[in-house]
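Quick start: what a row looks like.
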Amino acid sequence: MSRAAEKKPVGFATQLIAGGTAGAMEALCCQPLDTIKVRMQLSKSGTAPGTKPRGFIATGAMIVRRETPLALYKGLGAVLSGIVPKMAIRFASFERYKGWLADKHTGKTSVGNIFVAGLGAGVTEAVMVVNPMEVVKIRLQAQQHSLADPLEVPRYRNAGHAVYSIVREEGFAALYRGVSLTALRQATNQGANFTAYQELKKLAHNLQPERADLPSYQHMLIGLVSGAMGPFSNAPIDTIKTRLQKAPGAPGQSAAQRIAAIAREMVRQEGVRAFYKGITPRVLRVAPGQAVVFAVYERVRRAMETMQGSSEDRTFSE
């Protein structure tokens, strides 16, 4: 049996630290693209006759010109405050579901069950962390105020103030507005993401049997490919979710009714193409983001396993 096959399952503490570090690096690298994506999804540009929707470069340039470059990092506090538990839950729940779905005799998990484990991980992280975090992030990103003008006071000063204001004015349930769409988006994202990553990683190991561990650049390339698959499949879900979470709820209107109303209004006023607003910055954010996440996660995990298991490694080599 190979040494790689005898590795112990990754512990929760390792997943917490490695996942949190990877998530923080992803947020710092990719937050500007996420802010541009949200502004594009919320934009009604292109609705007037003879006008065209604003592209992602033009949207980014407008934000920088009107609100300073720091505005591209609006909502970063909300993202960073939720990224550690989000990534810990993502990797820990995926490994747990994958273990439950593994063949009892061989210990291996089929491709179909890896996809199911990814779906479960996506739903788990959406309900426990992602949806409240995104409601706050989107409210902050939607504020079009200049950070260079101290007299222009925004409605939400920071992530903590946004949480306090939303709960006080709209109730705790407002933090879970759009949770069904978020869960669906995260489930499809992680189902495709983990399945592609696991299969491509397996292929890379088979092509390089002499390597016990893949180099970081290969983890980045595999993460880049796997991360690009989700956004194209669920862009309409993400756009409707963004608009749903940005606005306060209407009295007496259920979530399903609001989702249907938003979709009808988008089709009527902006056309079907509106469902794919922000797809370019989303792909440019998600794909490199997953490249960063998997490369950093694997590197940090490997370093922690080396530190924790150095005595076991010596016993193994002897």
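That is the whole record. The longest helix spans residues 12-42. Residues 8-310 form a domain with the Mitochondrial carrier fold fold (CATH 1.50.40.10).
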